[in-house]
Amino acid sequence: MFRFVPTLLALSTLIAFSFGSAADAPLLVGFGEADVTPQLGDKPVYLAGFGQNRKATAIHDPLKARAIVLKHGERKVALASVDVVGLFHASTERIRAALPGFDYVLVSSTHNHEGPDTLGLWGPNPFKSGLNPDYLKLLEAQVVQAVLDAEKSAVAVTARIGTAHAPELLHDGREPYIKHDELVVLEFSNAKSQQRAGLVVQWNCHPETLDSKNTEISADFVGYTVKELQERHRCPVVYLTGTVGGLMTSLHVPLRDADGRPLTDGTFAKTERHGRLVGQAASKALEQAKPLRLTPIQARSREVYLPLENKAYVLGWQLGVLQRQAYLWTGDAHKAEPAPAKEFKKPLCIRTEVAWLRLGELDIAALPGEIYPELVLDKVQDPADPNADFSEAPIEPAIYKQLAGPHRMLVGLANDEVGYILPKRQWDEKAPYCYGRAKAQYGEGNSVGPEAAPILCKAFQELVKK
Length: 466
Prior knowledge:
There is one protein chain. This protein is α+β, with helices and mostly antiparallel strands. It has one domain. Helix content is 20%, strand content 26%. Strands 2, 4, 5, 6, 7, 9, 10, 12 and 14 form a nine-stranded mixed β-sheet that branches. Strands 1, 15, 16, 17, 18, 19 and 21 form a seven-stranded mixed β-sheet that branches. A two-stranded parallel ribbon has the order 3-11. A hairpin with a 2-residue loop joins strand 4 and strand 5. Helix 2 packs across helix 3 and helix 4 packs across helix 5. The longest helix has 20 residues. 52% of the residues are buried.
């Protein structure tokens, strides 16, 4: 069943925090980790990210919730990441409610396709949810624990930032072919001992190397990326997923093993190789890392409403497969009222969130889904393909153009999972199709609708400029 929230909370809100302390106050940073691997037993564990009824048969490697807490003066923020396919906004709200005293908490997912269904979309059939409420409750509690452990371990640190480009580790699965191949690494060192206190890695790729036939629970390549960095640098690691729409994927990336033999999608050999290569790219980025100032801290977030135009998602809500609150869409992206259960006639929308963090010299954009690289890098096709469904639609304000700081980073699936966020003028569901194709490309079927990108990009632009 859907939860109805009080009308006051249903209103779109703008939350802005701007805080700092004395110039000599140290930056304190801590890391935490908690296990979120589901137990296999009497109840089936449905794996997420591909088709229905893919049941887990074994546990290959653990799933983790990882967190970093940054404290400056009397203020503190947390960034958490979980090895699952996604979490709805309600999970973020419950996690925040369990963490009083934090000025801002960001909860993201790696978008792992080899973990349990945490959204309800991949159950035994399209009409039955694959979500285990007890597991979701445990997962949320473990995220809270990871954040609390990170806070307890916080020490005074210095920071550096490094970047690298690794286009060879990405496959773009949709025209126009635009890769977001920048990898960002933050390195924290104990201010007294100079020993590494931890790393944060942000990379833009679907963790789906194991493909659809795998039935063993795994963190996919992300687990091996973290393992590679932990082994090499002897410190905690937090992995953040960035731009994964459009489609940034590890599938179809040609890789070879140490002896030069080709590796195949759907194998743990390729998954480990890919993850370790991402980790090695991060280590190379650290070789050129530069000092980074991460104070003062600002964090702003804004709730927005997105029209729910995907008929399959509407049906899923009506059947109770998609267990999230729906609202009545009136055309206003900043105001809506809860929809009655199983509303069949009126247009619906969902409530989500965009956020912007400025940590000293680092700008972080936080978007609630799988955004396309074009919308981040200001590379939306222009002119549009004449066969696009909305070829005359205005180009959305690019995310990175809004970030004025010397360094930048994007966190995708941040605080919610609303599916693909694609440029409206590249929407292509109706024949004739773009690029002379005989059928539509993959993407639109996993989006709430063509208005998602215009609303989210505009809301983010307004948030930063406020």
